[in-house]
Specification:
Helix content: 25-40%
Largest sheet: 6 strands, parallel
Distance between the termini: 12 Å
Structural class: alpha/beta
CATH superfamily of the largest domain: Dihydrodipicolinate Reductase, domain 2
Strand content: 15-25%
Radius of gyration: 19 Å
Number of domains: 2
CATH class of the largest domain: Alpha Beta
Number of helices: 11
Strand order of the largest sheet: 3-2-1-4-5-6
Length: about 350
Amino acid sequence: MDKIRVAILGATGIVGQRLAALLAVHPWFTVVALCASAESAGLRYDEAVRARWRAPGEIPPSLAKTVVRPCLPDVEARLVFSALESGAAGPIEAAFAQEGYFVCSNAGDHRMSPNVPLLVPEANADHLALVQRQALGSGGIVANPNCSTAGLVLALAPLHRSFGVRQVFVATLQALSGAGYPGVPSLDIVGNAIPHIPGEEDKIETEPLKIMGDQTHLADFRISAQCHRVAAAEGHLLSIAVELAQRPTLEGLVSALSSFAPLRGLGLPTAPAFPLFVHPEPDRPQPLRDAGRGAGMTVTIGRVRPDRIFDYKFTALVNNLVRGAAGAAVLNAELAFRRGYLH
């Protein structure tokens, strides 16, 4: 098939770089435009990012000499990936959607808008139909959730389907890359942990309810979150305790997690065969050792055990830059293609 032409907004940032690296080798999509702020517009991509390139490997040769453009809806593309910062992203993404572009956003501006799908394809693929309520013709906006939310939702989705979730407590240990580049000053984080990430707890307590509800109503369980920034480079660790409507055996809980594969058969290039991996070792998952599992798209779960207050507790690790950001947006676009929204 002819590849779908795509543009990246915010292409010079840490998530935009991951999008560039993923899309440069994607079998369905081809990057025809890299867009960024006025500071980078007019430069070649390699000139704009060379000093701060943080994606694995080298700058993709196919994109290195591409001249960075302003974030204006005049690119010859069908699909737009947005890695813009929240705040700036809202009006820019809306302008592209109104001009007929299909926007897959990593920003938070539109996540809780009623007609914008907040999508984790394994959990709520049917929510993609909300795009039709935006009344933008062939344009539209789809959002992926906060990076920690992505890992939490993937861990909870099979449990909610099989046993019903009543309430959740989650404490996060979030990597430095979640703060962007250059991120947290070294003197603030070396030998330290910071028990506050602005706005993060509210996102984790609300976004999963939209994702795991139906298209018009939030899920009816409760989430309490506490968030911390720690000196890991990549990979957010979540300590989760969950109360269920029906308490399974430990073996039944592990089976529900490890067998979860709702996208099997769709042939989505970015989707792992199994989005959850239950690690048998007692000291896993670890960001340094497990963040790259499934090319960063697999959430690793470990230490599954009964809890004395809730029913069960376990640890989950999500790659914040891939499953929690760039890879999530690409997977959303692949699902949109399969469902006919990009033709």
